């Protein structure tokens, strides 16, 4: 109930100050961040954290605004910090309140049976987390909640998540910076690279089966 109360209050505050509307518009958000000066990075990190923990809040406009306001390197850093913090909070919430309460709260079925049944090693679970972080069409926060119900250790989850979000964080920040610069040729190239990364998990299925078996055997050694 305390966790739910915090989420409801946060949503109400964001709605009252008009932040929810701004969060859907990367350009307006960039202007707000720039006006805040030295407090802008803290806003980006805080918003990314809240967006990861709370599903209805979009994270892509925040990442684009971060790249547009702070460039590739710093924009990526702020997005990655916020995403990592949000993922760890979601993971911790799942561990604290358990499957039944979390399922009722999200009004969906969190099935981690495949994690517990078919994945028996910590290394393999880390690979699952890392791979899902490279798939933008999968819910980042829902994956964090679901993995929180698995036996994966916290430090392994943190490392796998960080390694998985860095490429997407960089590309989104880079995308935002390129849009701000008006170089549409580089914008198109960034979009192509982002699409390529998205397809990497499917490319894995094209790898010959004996190579995949060798990788799985190595993972189960963990």
Any key phrases for this structure?
globular; mainly alpha; 222 residues; 11 helices
Uncertain regions: pLDDT < 50 for 5+ in a row? Answer: none
Can you tell me the overall shape? globular
Q: Specify the helix fraction band.
A: over 70%
What is the terminal-to-terminal distance? 37 Å
Mean pLDDT: 75
Rg from C-alpha positions? 18 Å
- Number of E-state strands: 0
- How is the biggest beta sheet arranged? none
Counting helices, strands and paired strands, the structural category is: mainly alpha
Description:
The chain is mainly alpha-helical and 222 residues long. The protein has one domain (2-220). Helix content is 80%, strand content 0%. It has helices at 2-16, 19-22, 26-35, 40-53, 60-106, 113-118, 122-133, 140-148, 154-181, 184-204, 209-220.
Question: What does this entry show, briefly?
Answer:
80% of the residues lie in helices and 0% in strands. It contains 11 helices and no strands.
Topology:
Blueprint: H1 2-16, H2 19-22, H3 26-35, H4 40-53, H5 60-106, H6 113-118, H7 122-133, H8 140-148, H9 154-181, H10 184-204, H11 209-220
Helix pairs in contact: 3-4, 3-5, 4-5, 5-8, 5-9, 7-9, 9-10
């Amino acid at each position: 109930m305390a966790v739910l109360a915090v989420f409801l209050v946060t949503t109400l505050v964001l709605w009252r100050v008009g932040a929810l509307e701004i969060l859907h518009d990367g350009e307006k958000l960039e202007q707000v961040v720039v006006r805040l000066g030295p407090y802008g990075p803290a806003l980006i990190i805080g918003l990314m954290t809240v967006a990861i923990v709370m599903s209805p809040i979009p994270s892509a406009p925040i990442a684009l605004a971060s790249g547009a306001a702070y460039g590739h390197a710093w924009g990526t850093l702020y997005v990655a910090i916020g995403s990592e913090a949000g993922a760890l909070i979601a993971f911790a919430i799942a561990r604290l309140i358990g499957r039944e309460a979390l399922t009722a709260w999200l009004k969906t079925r969190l099935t981690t049976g495949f994690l517990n049944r078919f994945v028996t090693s910590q290394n393999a679970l880390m690979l699952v987390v890392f791979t899902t972080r490279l798939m933008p069409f999968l819910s980042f926060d829902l994956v964090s909640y679901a993995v929180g119900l698995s036996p994966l250790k916290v430090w392994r989850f943190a490392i796998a998540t960080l390694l998985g979000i860095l490429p997407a964080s960089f590309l989104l920040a880079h995308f935002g910076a390129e849009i701000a610069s008006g170089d549409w040729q580089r914008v198109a190239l960034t979009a192509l690279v982002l699409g390529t990364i998205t397809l990497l998990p499917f490319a894995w299925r094209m790898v010959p089966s004996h190579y995949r078996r060798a990788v799985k055997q190595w993972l189960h050694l963990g």
